[in-house]
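Section 5: illustrative case.
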């Protein structure tokens, strides 16, 4: 079966997120759907897991059966006409295999009709695991080669290719190593880089400061494109990775090429960080409200 999207001439393009639910609403599919709306696309969802979570951390996870995840994808792609898709929290090896299988079946992913952005989510910002340890191997072997674009942060780079990035220059090396795993494009996000070194466990007392400039490196196997900008000083960054990947997916759904989609996503997340707000006693979310306002 291939995706034969019934194209609506009047409605917005459709984007799909394959992701977990965050009960606090800051990250996960909630962040994706908010971003899709703010970026002018209709969002649909294949839920992979339900997390019990607030601004302080994740207190529980219930996984959705892999066949139900695959069926959700099938149902929306074959009926709604999905123009671009993304993955977020995938929870387990079995869910990753189910997603990879259904992507082949309905032409999602690298060199296919529907571009696929893979945000290789492994943990929450509090360090709570969102991906089983034994799922990393299949994430590498089954999903990354099917991706149009992957968007790892530096912690995810370490998990995927074992590189501890200590300088912006090493982000370029990491992009090469990740590209060798098979995705069409790689975006290595440098937002977690600390002065001196990206340390696995920065000392709790006086940790090195995060760099004042951020570099994200985009690579397609031939050319590098550097995206630089000032670090936006906010403690409220919950959902930032999801939001960037969802904004990029929205632009792809509207027909943009990957470099233009990344430029669009970077502009969107810069504003979302600039408008991030406190919520609860812990870490608040990045905000879509710079673009979506009540009357
Ligand atoms: O931001 C990554 C992420 C993705 N998906 C879910 C999450 C988080 C972070 O907490 O909870 C469901």
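Designed sequence:
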């Amino acid at each position: 079966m291939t995706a034969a999207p019934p194209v609506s001439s009047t409605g917005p393009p459709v984007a799909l997120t394959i992701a977990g639910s965050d009960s606090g609403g800051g990250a996960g599919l909630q962040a994706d759907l908010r971003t899709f709306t703010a970026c002018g696309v209709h969002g649909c969802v294949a839920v992979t897991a339900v997390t019990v979570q607030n601004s302080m951390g994740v207190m529980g996870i219930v996984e959705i059966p892999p066949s139900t995840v695959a069926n959700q994808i099938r149902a929306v792609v074959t009926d709604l006409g999905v123009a671009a898709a993304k993955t977020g929290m995938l929870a387990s090896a079995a869910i990753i295999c189910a997603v990879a299988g259904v992507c082949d079946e309905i032409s999602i992913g690298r060199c296919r009709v529907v571009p696929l952005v893979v945000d290789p989510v492994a943990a929450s910002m509090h360090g709570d695991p969102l991906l089983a340890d034994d799922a990393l191997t299949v994430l590498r072997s089954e999903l990354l080669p099917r991706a149009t674009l992957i968007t790892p942060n530096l912690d995810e780079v370490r998990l995927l290719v074992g590189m501890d990035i200590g300088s912006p220059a090493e982000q370029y090396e990491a992009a090469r190593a990740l590209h060798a795993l098979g995705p069409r494009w790689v975006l290595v996000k440098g937002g977690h880089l600390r002065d001196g070194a990206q340390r696995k466990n920065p000392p709790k007392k006086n940790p090195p400061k995060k760099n004042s400039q951020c570099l994200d490196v985009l690579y397609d196997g031939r050319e590098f494109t550097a995206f630089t900008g000032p670090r936006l000083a906010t403690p409220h960054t919950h959902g930032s990775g999801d939001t960037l990947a969802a904004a990029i997916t929205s632009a792809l759904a509207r027909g943009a090429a990957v470099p233009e989609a990344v430029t669009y996503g970077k502009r969107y997340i810069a504003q979302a960080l600039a408008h991030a707000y406190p919520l609860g006693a812990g870490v608040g979310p990045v905000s879509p409200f710079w673009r979506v306002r009540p009357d």
